[in-house]
Amino acid sequence: MTKQWTIDLLAADLIDRIEKKNLADRNGKLPSEKELMEHYQVSRYSLRQALSRLSKRGYIYQVQGRGSYVHDQLTQEQKAVQSDLGFTEDLAREGKLIQTVQATQRLVSYAEIDFSPSHQRFSEDQLFIEVERFRTLDDQPYLIEKSYYLADIVGQIPESAIYGSMFEYFAQEKELTVSFIDKFIRCELLTAKQAAFFGMNAGSPSLVVRDDSYLREGDLMAFSKIFYDYREATLFMHKKLQD
Question: Is the predicted pLDDT of residue 228 greater than 50, yes or no?
Fold first, then answer.
């Protein structure tokens, strides 16, 4: 007798196969909709509803015209941090002024970067544009951002761009549109230079967001660490319970 797959059961089975690493190919791509429909003997509607649930929970992402891919970096400890989570800087805050008061950039090699996504492999000759920005909110120290942009994707970055909105510059001037960002939250201790900006002591704690920014095609464009003054940072979460 053929098993009757409800959307709940279907989503659960897909998650189980992803976690056991026996669903996607070596590039992280899921089988086509047709293949999955034939395997489970379900309708296109049921399959898409199940895949939508996986996407909302951060297990997969979809690339238009290319299919669905697994988030390899999603681990058991990281499942609580999903795409609905952001910070006040990510929101449109009417009347609030965010400014970059100090910024530097330099071209660096793979050997020179301070951190990188654990799931991403780079060649030894990969070059990055390292950008460090010190930013204020309403003229008060708010965050320090250290980012690495893949040089072969973004090309040169003018100084005017690093003092404004980086993503807006890439979208308007280079037609590079960020489609989704993975965020990972942890606590780290501040260096003396970082602490001085916040008016704190070296070794003080900071709320840190590690994020990876991907283009529409699923290619990694940049990865960053954003250090927040834990006394000022505000978490915002929106969770949609019904479609």
Answer: yes
Average pLDDT along the chain:
84
- Please state whether the predicted TM-score (pTM) of the whole model is above 0.70: no
Is 129 in contact with 105 (CB distance < 8 Å)? yes
Provide the 3-class DSSP secondary structure of residue 154. Answer: helix
**115-135 per-position pLDDT tens digit:** 999 878 899 999 999 999 999
**R_g of the chain computed on alpha carbons:** 20
Give Cβ neighbours of residue 170 (< 8 Å, ≥ 6 apart). Answer: 154, 176, 177, 178, 221
Each domain of the chain, given as residue ranges in start order, spans 7-72, 85-237
Burial class (CB in 10 A: 0-12, 13-18, 19+), 156: exposed
Superfamily of domain 85-237: Chorismate lyase-like (3.40.1410.10)
Q: pLDDT at position 71, please? A: 75
2 — pLDDT class (breaks 50, 70, 90): low
Torsion angle of the four alpha carbons 104, 166, 234, 72, in this order, in degrees rounded to the nearest 10: -100
Query: What CATH code is assigned to 7-72?
Result: 1.10.10.10
Cβ(88)–Cβ(135) under 8 Å? no
- 145, exposed or middle or buried, with CB in 10 Å at 0-12, 13-18, 19+? buried
**58-144-126-71 Cα dihedral, nearest 10 degrees:** 0
Chain centroid offset of residue 172 CA: 21
